[in-house]
Amino acid sequence: MPSSMIPPQTAIGGTTARSPRIITHMLDLPDLTRIGRAARERRDRADRSSHASISYQEGVGPVTELPASVVFGKGGR
Fold first, then answer.
1. Tell me: the pLDDT tens digits for 13-61?
2. What is the pTM of this model?
């Protein structure tokens, strides 16, 4: 490309406007995109809250600490 030519224009990234929902508004239909997004957010929130949760309940049993040498058999009995 010669240096005297102007480089091609590129669009600056950004948010694009949503197209109007005229028909769904006229027919009084729910916004399925919004409903699906809300359901997905609830499901993701439930997954995150249940992931890697540790139960600290009574009667689980004592935790004993052993040296690694005993557990892996290096220098144990």
1. 666 667 777 888 888 888 888 889 999 999 998 888 876 666 666 666 6
2. 0.38
CB burial of 39-55 (b: ≥16 within 10 Å; e: otherwise) equals eeeeeeeeeeeeeeeee
- What DSSP line would sit under 24-74, residue for residue? HHHTT---HHHHHHHHHHHHHHHHHHHTT-----TTS-------HHHHTTS
Query: Quick one: CA dihedral 56, 58, 61, 66, positive or negative?
Result: positive
Q: What sign has the CA pseudo-torsion 36, 37, 42, 43?
A: positive
What is d(CA 41, CA 46) in angstroms, rounded to the nearest whole number? Answer: 9
CB of 1 closer than 8 Å to CB of 7: yes
77's tokens: 């009995």
